Amino acid sequence: MLSYTLRRLAFAVPTVLVISLIVFLMLDMAPGDPTASLPLTIPLEVREQIRISLGLGEPVMVRYFKWLYMMCITEPLHILQGMTGWNIAPEGPRILSWQTRSPVGDILIQRVPQTLWVVGMGYLFGILIALPIGVISAYRQYSWFDQVGTFVSMVGFSVPTFFTGIVFILIFAVWLGWFPSMYDTTHVVTNWDSFLFQVKQIAMPVAVLALYNASQISRFMRASMLDNLNQDYVRTARAKGLGEKTVVLVHVLRNSMIPVVTVIAIGIPTVFTGAIITEQIFRVNGLGDALIRAIYVSDWPMVQTITFIFAILIVLFNLIADVLYGILDPRIRYD
Q1: pLDDT surpasses 70 at 60
Q2: Domain segments of the chain as ranges
Q3: How far is 222 from 143, CA to CA, in rounded Å?
């Protein structure tokens, strides 16, 4: 297992580097200019000076390697310095947002807590809801529980989150008045009342995301459980006199989790990069909101950074999923 993990890590490094180059070159060739929003009265030579000050006067590969160095070394050290107070950050240029002229790393650190609270809790609740629903639906196939679960899952997965979010706002915020329609990012929890307000304002975006995630994962869980319930080892376990609870929750569930782990692991990076549509609907000041705003104004340093982080997380959690295969199923060997 250890040698396999090391081999995958060694393969992951060039993979991430190739992805970073592709992302950088594609966005560099994309239409959009940091001086496009400036008044037309500004002379062309001044516009060119602004472009040069932003580092756009150098060859593309020079700019790529400078960006990669700042992305992998400068920005992480600055973030670590801000978190610990250690004087370890190097002096020199940083990745600056064209829109705000602030370091991209500082902007993302400010938005990460909001994204983890909303999107992270939505994903966690989605998993906690989906797994038991998938198990019960498969064990009681074609029962009323399975029929209702299938219907809700199909609706939750088929209806886009922007429509679900609007329906939730209309019902629970406008008609019933139970929850605030917009998320207040500046709210600070200091006492019980402020905590209750935080729970209320986070309830609807979390519910929208949990419904969408649970609908997807429960379908995979049900299909995997059905596939394993008819296997020979299940009949053998029952013939040996094992209890039905032990057969389902120990033998069948463990093997059924293998494909579901892939779905869950691949979905985890979305927790860190944010739910773009949902954050826009509820005005959550998270990473998804930062990405969509950066795309609107052609803020390519911000888009490049968030996209690169997303690529790293996908590669990392794919590796974690592969390692978990061997833990869940002893028959899988990597050596």
Answers
A1: yes
A2: 2-36+106-328
A3: 13
Tell me the C-alpha distance between 49 and 129, whole Å.
56
Helices (H), the chain: 2-29, 44-53, 60-69, 75-84, 104-115, 121-139, 144-158, 161-168, 192-229, 232-239, 244-246, 253-267, 269-273, 276-281, 287-296, 300-328
The structure tokens 């209806």 sit at 159
Q: How far from the centroid of its chain's Cα atoms is residue 39's Cα?
A: 37
- Contact in structure between 23 and 304 (CB atoms under 8 Å): yes
Taken in order 213, 112, 104, 101, the sign of the CA dihedral is positive
Report the alpha-carbon distance of residue 48 to residue 258 in Å, rounded. 55
pLDDT in tens, 274-333: 577 787 788 888 887 788 888 887 788 888 888 888 888 888 888 887 777 766 666 666
pLDDT at 297: 79
Fold for 2-36+106-328, please state it.
MetI-like fold (1.10.3720)
User: Which residue's structure tokens are 């899952």?
Assistant: 153
Average of per-residue pLDDT values in the chain: 81
Q: What is the pTM of this model?
A: 0.78
Is 103 in a helix, a strand, or coil?
Answer: strand
| pLDDT single digits (tens) 166-176 | 888 889 888 88
Residue 181 has phi, psi (to 5 degrees) of: -80, -25
Residue 245's CB is within 10 A of a number of other CB atoms, namely 8
Query: What is the distance between the alpha carbons of residues 91 and 73, in angstroms, rounded to a whole number?
Result: 12
